[in-house]
Amino acid sequence: MQTYMQLATETLEKITRKLKYKRLDIQLWLSNNGIKDKGLQEEIMCSIRDIIKRKEDFDEHRPLLNLPQKHKRDIKRLVCKSLLENVPTLGKASKDKYLWSLICDSLKPVYLIENTYIIRQGEVLDAMLFINQGTVCTFSTNDENGIRCLNKGDFFGEELLNWVLAPLASSGPSEQIPLSKITLKCKTKVEVFSLWVDDLKNIVSGNHLRIKKFRRIIGCTDAKDELEDLAAKSLQAAFAAFHRHMADPKQKTRTSLARKATKCAMCFS
């Protein structure tokens, strides 16, 4: 019994030391990302302690890869709010809370080391990227301005978003995914959030009415959308006229007499 208690005490002390060592880095990450809610911070630390208790490794430098799904969702919605708002098109989506949440929940955290190529010029642009930490260099073979840097808050790949939202034909965007016009290479360790093309397509295809409204907000409509809007307005006008017609007592009497006359005609026919 004494041996068991001694082992349990040693295990607890080991967990406490390990958690204390990781706590500083995790709290720094939370602070750098504007997560100041003490309650949420404590919940996250409790989850990390449980993970360590299960003798699972927890990478404090990549916290979003290990945390429970609930905490991932809460953190992404807080952290990515400002990142998404930096994109003119996506910033307008914030008016639709449901659509905004879908976009935030679809973001995937990606961690890259320095000198890693994210995408090369001419490759398929299959994700939109939002820089959360670190520095990414961009350059192209036909850019006279040379190398540029993307830092926290910057984004890349807005043309992919425009491509998915473009109401081309009846089936949506064309099959030809845009190609990257520039090369992206990590200058430092980088943390980015990626919005993959398949996730974007799923959001668009599964929320037709919301996306249609969003297209109208950003001025991305075609002749089909305009015809549908015109048909909807005409139908609304017809219903309004019908209700006005029925609200008039004289019209009600005329309608009632007309119905009786029709019934009589049917009886004698």
Question: Which terms summarize this structure?
Answer:
four-stranded antiparallel sheet, 2 domains, Jelly Rolls, flat, 269 residues
How would you describe the overall organization of this protein?
The structure is a single chain. By secondary structure, this protein is an alpha+beta fold. The chain has 2 domains: 1-67, no CATH class; 87-236, Jelly Rolls (Sandwich). It has helices at residues 2-32, 38-53, 69-85, 88-91, 97-106, 158-165, 197-206, 208-218, 223-247, 249-268; strands spanning 108-112, 117-119, 127-133, 136-139, 148-150, 155-156, 183-186, 190-196. The strands form 2 sheets. A 4-stranded antiparallel beta sheet has the order 1-8-3-6. The protein has a 4-stranded antiparallel beta sheet with strand order 2-7-4-5, with no helix packed on it. Strand 4 and strand 5 form a beta hairpin. Helix 1 crosses helix 2 (38-53) and helix 6 runs parallel beside helix 7 (197-206). It is flat, with a radius of gyration of 29 Å. The model is unreliable at 4-8 and 168-173 (pLDDT under 50).
What amount of the residues lies in strands?
5-15%
Strand order of the largest sheet: 1-8-3-6
User: Total strand count, please?
Assistant: 8
**Mean pLDDT over the residues:** 77
Give the low-pLDDT segments. Answer: 4-8, 168-173
Distance between the termini: 102 Å
Domain count, please report it. Answer: 2
**What's the alpha carbon Rg, rounded to whole Å?**
29 Å
Under the CATH scheme, the architecture of the largest domain is Sandwich
Helix content: 55-70%
Quote the CATH topology of the largest domain: Jelly Rolls
CATH superfamily of the largest domain: Jelly Rolls
Run of helices and strands: HHHHHEEEEEEHEEHHHH
Largest sheet: 4 strands, antiparallel
Helical segment count = 10
Structural class: alpha+beta
- CATH class of the largest domain, anyone? Mainly Beta
Q: What would the principal axes of the Cα set say about the shape?
A: flat
